[in-house]
Amino acid sequence: MSQKIDGNLQATAHLRSVALGNKPAASTDAPTRPVEAADSLRLTGEATSLQAMQRELSAAPAIDAERVQAVRQSLQDGTYKINPDAIASRMLELDQQLQG
After folding, report:
1. Could you tell me if 86 and 95 are in contact, meaning their C-beta atoms sit under 8 angstroms apart?
2. Contact between 32 and 25 (Cβ < 8 Å)
3. What distance in Å separates the CA atoms of residue 61 and residue 59, rounded to the nearest whole number?
4. pLDDT tens sequence across 10-57
5. Where are the alpha helices (DSSP H) in the chain?
6. Radius of gyration of the chain measured on its C-alpha atoms
7. Which DSSP letter does residue 61 get?
8. CA distance 15 to 23
9. Which of 40, 19, 21, 39 is nearest to 30 (CA)?
10. Phi, psi of 80 (to 5 degrees)
11. 28 DSSP 8-state letter
12. What is the distance between the alpha carbons of residues 4 and 2, in angstroms, rounded to a whole number?
């Protein structure tokens, strides 16, 4: 049996709806209901702490305005000190952390 494919195919198969579940439905007249999941989730103490920290950090401002003002004032006064050793040390620490 051959059939020409030209984009105007007639559907020959009849589709039927299937209800999800372990047993087939007793009657086809009864409405189907979705299956309810029985999953549960328990968080560890560490996960709970991380969630609390995340909530606290999201409520905090992204920029410490007092610190910015203090640095700005130090720069204007000429009293701001740059410690190149501390900067290099922190850069090396960050590099080690990123490498794992």
Report:
1. no
2. yes
3. 7
4. 555 555 555 555 555 555 666 777 777 778 778 788 988 999 999 998
5. 45-59, 65-77, 84-99
6. 33
7. -
8. 20
9. 19
10. -70, 125
11. T
12. 7
Residue 19 CB neighbour total at 10 angstroms? 14
Coil, helix or strand for 26? coil
Choose among 61, 64, 41, 63: nearest CA to 51.
41
Q: pLDDT for 47-63, tens place per residue?
A: 889 999 999 989 888 89
Amino acid symbol at 69: Q
Asked if 32 and 19 touch (Cβ cutoff 8 Å), the reply is yes
- By the 8 A CB rule, do 32 and 16 touch? no
